[in-house]
Amino acid sequence: MSSPRVRLYGRPDCHLCDEAREGLAELRAGGLDFEVEEVNIETDPGLHARYLERIPVVELNDQIVSELHLDAAALTTRLRG
């Protein structure tokens, strides 16, 4: 069985995105099993328009778990659910 995939929408030079990335790394280091797919919204005008004011956006199974920051508790609950 493959690991769940967490998608992080962000962009370069975004301190909130950096914080979310670090938080995801901490969750993985703490024993949660998931893969991270980072999506740079700067590479797609549609994603840029959709997510610019909301990044970082964290999704699990194509459902948004958190916006503007990493909600580690919500993500942990969904991953363990």
Outline the structure in words.
There is one protein chain. With 81 residues, the protein is of the alpha+beta class. The chain has one domain: 3-Layer(aba) Sandwich (Glutaredoxin), CATH 3.40.30. The chain contains 3 helices and 4 strands. The chain has helices spanning 15-29, 45-51, 72-80; strands at residues 5-10, 35-40, 57-60, 63-67. The chain has a 4-stranded mixed β-sheet with strand order 2-1-3-4, with helices on one face. Helix 1 (15-29) links the parallel strand 1 and strand 2. It starts with a strand and ends with a helix. The model has no long low-confidence stretch (mean pLDDT 96).
Spatial strand order of the main sheet: 2-1-3-4
Task: Please tell me the total number of domains.
Answer: 1
Oligomer classification = single chain
Rg from C-alpha positions? Answer: 12 Å
Number of helical elements: 3
Distance between the termini: 16 Å
CATH superfamily: Glutaredoxin
Gross morphology is globular
Give the mean pLDDT. Answer: 96
- List how many beta strands DSSP finds: 4
CATH domain class: Alpha Beta
- Secondary-structure content class: alpha+beta
Q: CATH topology, what is it called?
A: Glutaredoxin
The assigned CATH architecture is 3-Layer(aba) Sandwich
Q: Main sheet, how many strands, which sense, barrel?
A: 4 strands, mixed
> Which stretches are poorly predicted, pLDDT < 50 over at least 5 residues?
none
Which series of helices and strands comes N to C? EHEHEEH
Determine the strand fraction and express it as a percent band. Answer: 25-35%
Q: Please give the share of residues in helix.
A: 25-40%
